[in-house]
Amino acid sequence: MSSSFPNGNADEIPENDLWQYPFNVSNPGGNVTLRLTLDNWGSDVTWTLSALSGVVLYSGGPYPDLQEGLVIERQWCLTNDCYIFSILDAFGDGICCSEGEGSLEIVNSDGSVLVQNDGQYGEGFVTAPPFCVEVVGVAERERTRTMLMYPNPASTEVSITLDGFGPAARVAVLDGTGRLVRGFSSNGSRLVRIGLDGIAPGLYMVLAEDDGGRAVQRLVVRR
């Protein structure tokens, strides 16, 4: 995420305009469906789907009471890996059979059953071994944008090497108030040279960006 021209004005601190947060992506991802048939005491039922690392990816319950036969369907987007499904019953009698004919199954996108249970699990049920998902596909290669700038500090010229940027990358030199001092287009080149004639000594920000992201570095100009 990034911002520019807050409230219509030049940003006084451009180095904090870019915010990044790492997260996991199911790539390639496939749909897997949980079908949970309740007994009369849905309020007893809770479940989780976890990665092998123990991170909880999805969870559900409790559910309404006196809804015997109600089918709960949850769809998950999962990638090639193995997973642990666990379901608990607070009363300790499962979801079958004296209070209704409950059950559960987990199926993949082509209808193949990955997990199945008749609901007679007492206090709880955990997939052991974990169930695994295989999705056909090729993961996209992540493109990382980096900028190498030298020399720094500089006096007459600074060279900037761009990696991971598209052919329409833009490079800008900004002063401490966010005012544009120099602006260039990379024109598809990985190397951009910026002359510093007429730029007063001081601290500047060099911003390289394309439509997919940006990189920012500080530049010290000395005479």
- Give the CATH level 1 class of the largest domain: Mainly Beta
What's the number of helices? 0
The third-level CATH topology of the largest domain is Lipoxygenase-1
* CATH architectural designation of the largest domain: Sandwich
Q: In percent terms, what proportion of residues is strand? A: 35-45%
Q: What does the radius of gyration come to?
A: 28 Å
Distance between the termini: 36 Å
Low-confidence stretches: none
Helix and strand succession?
Answer: EEEEEEEEEEEEEEEE
Topology, pairings included?
Elements lengths: L29 E8 L7 E7 L4 E5 L10 E8 L2 E9 L13 E5 L5 E5 L6 E3 L4 E3 L12 E5 L6 E7 L6 E5 L5 E6 L5 E5 L6 E9 L2 E9 L2
Antiparallel strand pairs: 1-4, 1-6, 2-3, 2-5, 5-8, 5-9, 6-7, 10-11, 11-14, 12-13, 12-15, 15-16
Account of the protein in words:
The chain folds into two domains: 30-133, Lipoxygenase-1 (Sandwich); 141-221, Sandwich (Immunoglobulin-like). The model has no long low-confidence stretch (mean pLDDT 85). By secondary structure, the chain is an all-beta fold. It has strands at residues 30-37, 45-51, 56-60, 71-78, 81-89, 103-107, 113-117, 124-126, 131-133, 146-150, 157-163, 170-174, 180-185, 191-195, 202-210, 213-221. The strands form four sheets. Strands 2, 3, 5, 8 and 9 form a five-stranded antiparallel beta sheet that branches. It has a four-stranded antiparallel beta sheet with strand order 4-1-6-7, with no helix packed on it. Strands 13-12-15-16 form a four-stranded antiparallel beta sheet, with no helix packed on it. The protein is elongated, with a radius of gyration of 28 Å.
